[in-house]
Amino acid sequence: MPGDGSLIIVMRAGATREDIDGVLGRLAEVGAEAHVSEGSHQTIIGIVGDRALVQQLPWEALPGVERAVPVLKPFKFVSREFQPEDSIVEVGSAKIGGGRFAPIAGPCAVESREQLFASAEAVQKAGATILRGDAFKPRTSPYAFQGLGEAGLELLAEAREEFGLPFVVEVLDPRDVDLVSSYADLIRVGTRNMANFSLLSELGRQSKPVMLKRGFTATIEEWLNAAEYIYKEGNHDVVLCERGIRTFENATRNTLDISAVPIVKGLSHLPIIVDPSHSGGHKELVAPLTRVAVAAGADGFMVDVHPTPETALVDGPQAILPAEFAALMDEVRALAAAMHLEV
Ligand code: PEP
Ligand code: MN
Predict the structure, then answer these.
(1) Considering only CA atoms, which residue is closest to atom 10 of ligand 1?
(2) Which of 53, 216, 220, 242 sits most deeply, having the most CB atoms within 10 A of its CB?
(3) Which residue has the higher pLDDT, 188 or 29?
(4) Which of helix, strand or coil describes residue 220?
């Protein structure tokens, strides 16, 4: 769909194949191109064509049509114009969005059963609702630890059983999407892959929710367009994660762009969380950056927690200890209450 305005037709939850074909037939008659996004709850149809002509037609009178919404932004389905209400994404037993601050925590990478289980037990006791831990690591050096691969996914699945926590894990390669999707509760796209459009489309065609991190050189608009790649393929469960952008400042790993939280909230209905670990890059910054995330209206945070950061194979300097995470959760609960958010 071009950026110069178009229309989205939202079908009713119970719309039949015939209803959808009826709409597509009318679109074909007026020479408009349609993009059909069949989600698990609802089908939505994006239209490209002569806007004036398309908008004149009485779409809402057609069987099965709930509403027709004009959208001016280059990203359509993820825009607030298309859906004024906040999206809530279900991740196993947990939820992200809709008035709660979701705590996601665990080690950067799965290193061993002992390390993962110690982290999972601690974060679960402290109140985390989703476990993090990676099996495939995108490393700056090709010689650095790359993750345990499928063995790491198996350990995460065991930890889910043991501690009752759904988990989020990164996928790096479109060829691994089916494998990761068969284990994960929430699949993460990392900053380096935000503009890997074939990976995004592939994730749009599988059924697990997706967390899309912001590219460290991406504008907010580029990021929302990346989310659109996933959404338009039919996967409507997308969570955004602000994780810092590259600026001239080198006191931090990246600069947390806290303004992105309210800006995204204005532009999109998708939930947005903050990663205070990968943005700041230092454990001392995790608590202050988490506090501003709650105050800015984020829908949650994702933090690196490691039982022995000094032995961590990845990102030790930014990991906090289990006891530090428990103390941070106490602060988060107090701040979230002031913001009228559940934790
Ligand atoms: C991570 O969360 O472990 C990670 C690699 O983050 P990012 O893609 O934001 O660098
Ligand atoms: Mn990391």
Answers:
(1) 191
(2) 242
(3) 188
(4) helix
